[in-house]
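Holo prediction — tetrahydrodeoxyuridine.
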Amino acid sequence: MSAPLDPQTRAELIRAAFAARRFAYVPYSRFKVGAALLADDGRVFTGCNIENASYTPTNCAERTALFKAVSEGARRFTAIAIVGSYEGRVNELVTGPCGVCRQALYEFGGPSLAVVMAKSEDDYIQTTLGELLPYAFGPANLEDAPAQ
Ligand code: THU
């Protein structure tokens, strides 16, 4: 189950994701991604992918947005919009969050986080993080830690 995401908020998130995508630093893949994450207090945090000559330190747009948000005090989120494509190309596929980002988002969004994978404001797939990461390992798994 996901909290309802009204059409206007969804459109705003998609627009914000496209705006963030402009800042993608992608000299290696040329694949530009933008994300916009809605916190439960109404704030929207955006991010782009940031690549690295050493490849491994590359940060996805979703985690850029998430880490910006958590570092500014936001801990709970209701929705994320993601857009990705090569510069100047029309998307064939929607860009879904990679496995690492699904896990990172699960920590703070849980299964109800609405995930909007968009090609444009009116062409998108909306699902939930629970659908994208079933049987996730999360904070609840570590709740009953034995005393040291
Ligand atoms: N990328 C993202 O930013 N988010 C995703 O969900 C998928 C992949 C980035 C990482 C890399 O900079 C480029 O897209 C190609 O993999």
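READOUT: The helical segments are 7-21, 61-70, 99-109, 129-132.
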